[in-house]
Structure formats: C-alpha cells, structure tokens
Write a structure and sequence with these properties.
Distance between the termini: 34 Å
Shape: globular
Helix content: over 70%
Number of strands: 0
Number of domains: 1
Number of helices: 5
C-alpha cells in the first residue's frame, strides 16, 4: 500500500532529529521573539527585554526540545541545558550589543528587532550542535 505524501512527510520528520529540531525551533523562536518584541514595544531596553524573554524561552525550550526533538523527558538534564543556553545568551547578547553600537540611521526599536531576527539562524545552528553534544547525547 502506497503512503500519502503527508504520511511520507510525517515519517521523514519522525526519522530525522535535525528536521524535528528545526520545526520545534520555529515554535520556540516564535515564543521567544514575540515575548522579546512585546517587551521592546512597551519600552524596555534591549538587554532587559532580551534577558526576560531568554529565561522564559529556556524553560519553554527545554520541554519542547527534550520531548519533541530528542525524545528525552529527563528533567535532570536541565542544568546542562541551562549551561548551553548561558553560552547562547552570551553570544546573542554580544550580537545585540554590536548592533546597538552600530551607527545606523534607523529607529532604535527597529534596529534591535532586525538585529535579533538576523541572529536567529546562527543561534539555532549553534544551539542544535551544543544540545546534541552536551545535553541530549546518546
């Protein structure tokens, strides 16, 4: 019996960890970015907005990445996961600091929202590698 294209796609997604990571990453990114953007738009400075959204995002991400991507529900891995996200936080915060320091003639809020959006792809790649190696290995 032939599988439908949807069934083939679901089977492909279930088989490939990185594909699941990318799809879950979209969900996680939407959660974190919408929270960050909301905080920027209500007037918080980028570092405070980023910090608040980052902490909330880490807790949300741990659940989704652990369960949906790596099929691991072990909450004891939270410490390692947080360690990875501390590294990601520092890299991301430095990227935002650099963007803030750039003398670009656009509104502050717009500049910081664009900078954060640009950082999404490289941070996602680093996140996958670090999580696979240091947190959800094996």
């Amino acid at each position: 019996m032939n599988s439908s294209p949807v069934q083939k796609l679901v089977k492909f997604i279930k088989k490939h960890t990185f594909i699941r990571f990318l799809l879950v990453g979209v969900l996680n990114t939407l959660f974190g970015y919408l929270l960050y953007a909301s905080l920027i738009l209500i007037g918080l400075k980028y570092l405070l907005a980023f910090s608040i959204s980052y902490v909330a995002g880490v807790l949300f991400n741990f659940q989704t990445i652990g369960k949906l991507v790596f099929k691991n529900k072990n909450n004891k891995l939270l410490f390692r996961f947080v360690g990875v996200y501390v590294v990601l936080y520092l890299l991301n915060a430095e990227g935002l600091r650099i963007a803030d320091a750039l003398n670009i003639n656009i509104e502050y809020k717009t500049k910081m929202l664009i900078a954060s959006a640009i950082l999404v792809v490289p941070m996602a790649m680093v996140s996958f590698v670090l999580n696979k190696i240091f947190v959800f290995r094996g």
